[in-house]
Amino acid sequence: MRQDSRLSRMLHVLIHMGRHDGAMTSEMIAQMLDANPVVIRRTMAGLRDEGYVSSVKGHGGGWTLARPLEELTLLDIYRAVGEPSIFAVGPAYDMPGCPIEQAVNGTLTDVFNEAEDLLRKRFAGVTLADIANGFQGSSEQDGGQRCTP
Question: Record's InterPro entries (predicted)?
């Protein structure tokens, strides 16, 4: 099953933006992530709608942080990118009338919901500044440059 990397990719972008002097265009971000600028604009629009980034059109325009990294949590960005599924496993609904399948599904659903709640609480306690401060690197070296995946 293919993993959903939207959260990771947007965290990556936002930390670069926090270290970059000036706006970053969709094309710059797309080149950095080896992605299509249209997809970048669509995703960034969701972050803009939540007030995490702002955009300016035209020459000299682009995307900038609307809030400092210290005020953005993993939970904020997770929600802004559409709350992608955390688990690749889930209940089966092959025999909905079977009481054993119902018991298994009920238990799995409860356990997954509890685990998701714990993860969301942990996400809420980690800021993007925590991540940005957790590695060595200067803003001149990483601001908007293509990173090696």
Answer: Tscrpt_reg_Rrf2, WH-like_DNA-bd_sf, WH_DNA-bd_sf
The CATH class that applies to domain 6-86+127-142 reads mainly alpha
Contacts of 35 (CB under 8 A, 6+ apart): 9, 29
62-65 and 53-56 beta bridge pairing? antiparallel
Residue 7: closest CA among 70, 90, 69, 80: 80
pTM for the structure as a whole: 0.82
Give the largest Cα separation in the chain, rounded: 63
39 near 29, Cβ under 8 Å?
A: no
Strand partners, 56: 62
Q: In b/e form, how buried is each residue of 85-122, taking b as 16+ CB within 10 angstroms?
A: eeeeeeeeeeeeeeeeeeeebeeeeeebeeeeeeeeee
pLDDT in tens, 22-80: 899 999 999 999 999 999 999 999 999 999 999 988 887 899 999 999 999 999 999 99
